[in-house]
TrEMBL record:
InterPro entries: EryCIII-like_C (IPR010610), EryCIII-like_N (IPR048284), Glycosyltransferase_28 (IPR050426), UDP_glucos_trans (IPR002213)
Domain Erythromycin biosynthesis protein CIII-like C-terminal: 240-380
Swiss-Prot/TrEMBL GO biological process terms: antibiotic biosynthetic process
This protein's name: DUF1205 domain-containing protein
Species of provenance: Streptomyces mobaraensis (Streptoverticillium mobaraense)
UniProt xrefs under SUPFAM superfamilies: UDP-Glycosyltransferase/glycogen phosphorylase
tRNA-binding recorded as keyword: no
Lineage: Bacteria, Bacillati, Actinomycetota, Actinomycetes, Kitasatosporales
Length: 384
């Protein structure tokens, strides 16, 4: 079976696809990834890749969108929630894709030249749906968290692309959902898939190796505020963490990719900072996680049964993610200025939250493994 994976070029949209990629290749299937920028991270995980837009990333796409259509990009930072947010993000990505016609054409052309048996696409990447429809093969939407626009919604928001190619949605479709059902109920007919944490690979510097292999004597708290430059809200949280650390009987491991920590001054003795850490190894010996309400980090914490503290930042779906996590009882959504010793000690002592987190961890472990979903893909293709 030849499987084409197409994904929007963002790490949070790409990493959830790694486990299925591994399972497909282990089962003997041929996988090709058509993406660009961070979407090519699947290549680091063993997939063959085609760079459909060298140098392009989701961040750059949104940057160009902000220049050309500031009102559309601005809505991403508004507080729309639920279905309202899905329309906002879906409309913004459709508008951003219209500004990248060469990338869109390259995704579709790659599919036409390679002739896959099935196209697996991230929810926002409409060219993947169009490619599957043109080839008459099944399209499988692979979710990346708790908030995934439906194919029907994306068809409506990017109708001009479908009309340009003279197609509608593919006749045979499926949806893969990595959200634990008790956190976000699985849509009828969707295929649940166990979430497998992955956030890249690379060599471990000796200080990081030593830290990951040392059992901490006090509670260890992971701090992740996303990738890229630290904006005002995240910088405020970082300052609060550094002020809190000397007053807290805990160890903090801060992960801030591509961020210069020099403006924050010298770090307290119980704070360790790295630009990259394999989350699975880190979270296995943590007691809690402070993060920016990113769906990947939230799911990683759930997979390890850890309580979560989420300073709520504006827009990009983060308020909705924080609400979803808090409603399940496995985390607490707070204002950035609330981060302090009292909050951390309260969460570490919250047995109800720890019990709920353990329940969700076991729920994730009981979800179908990637190899089982490969079997469903095989049946889907055979019956198409």
């Amino acid at each position: 079976m030849r499987v084409l994976i197409t994904t929007t070029p963002g790490t949070g949209h790409t990493y959830p696809l790694v486990a299925l990629n591994w399972a497909l290749q282990t089962a003997g299937h041929e996988v090709l990834v058509a993406s660009c920028g961070p979407g090519l991270a699947l290549g680091e995980a063993g997939a063959r890749t085609v760079d459909v837009a060298p140098g392009l990333s989701l961040e750059k796409m949104v940057g160009l969108l902000a220049q050309r259509h500031p009102e559309v990009a601005g809505r991403l930072l508004q507080e729309a929630d639920g279905a309202g947010y899905l329309e906002v993000v879906g409309g913004a990505v459709a508008a951003a894709l219209r500004l990248q016609p060469e990338m869109v054409a390259a995704v579709i052309r790659t599919a036409e030249e390679w002739r896959p048996d099935v196209v697996v696409h991230s929810p926002l990447l409409t060219p993947g749906m169009v490619a599957a429809a043109k080839l008459g093969v099944p399209a499988v939407q692979h979710g990346f968290g708790f908030l995934n626009p439906s194919a029907e919604l994306m068809r409506e928001l990017h109708a001009d692309l479908f009309e340009e190619h003279g197609v509608d949605l593919p006749e045979v479709r499926a949806v893969v959902d990595i959200s634990p059902p008790s956190v976000v109920p699985t849509e009828p007919g969707a295929w649940p898939l166990r979430y497998v944490p992955y956030n890249g690979s690379g060599p471990l510097p000796k200080p990081l190796f030593d830290l990951l292999n040392r059992v901490p004597e006090t509670p260890r708290i992971a701090v992740s505020l996303g990738s890229g430059p630290v904006p005002g809200e995240a910088a405020q949280v970082m300052e609060r963490i550094l002020a809190t650390a000397p007053k807290t009987d805990a160890e903090f491991v801060v992960v801030l990719p591509r961020v210069d920590l020099e403006p924050f001054g010298s770090l307290p003795d119980n704070v360790h900072a790295f630009d990259w850490v394999p989350y699975s190894a880190l979270l296995a010996r943590c007691s809690a996680v402070v993060h920016h309400a990113g769906p990947g980090t939230a799911l990683g914490a759930m997979a390890h049964g850890l309580p979560q503290i989420m300073p709520v930042f504006k827009g990009l779906g983060r308020p909705a993610v924080a609400r979803i996590v808090a409603d399940r009882g496995v985390g607490r959504a707070v204002r950035p200025e609330e981060v302090g010793p009292e909050l951390l000690e309260s969460v570490l002592a919250d047995e109800g939250m720890r019990t709920a987190a353990a329940e969700v961890r076991e729920e994730i472990r009981s979800m179908p493994a990637p190899a089982e979903v490969v079997g469903r893909l095989e049946e889907l293709v055979a019956g198409a």
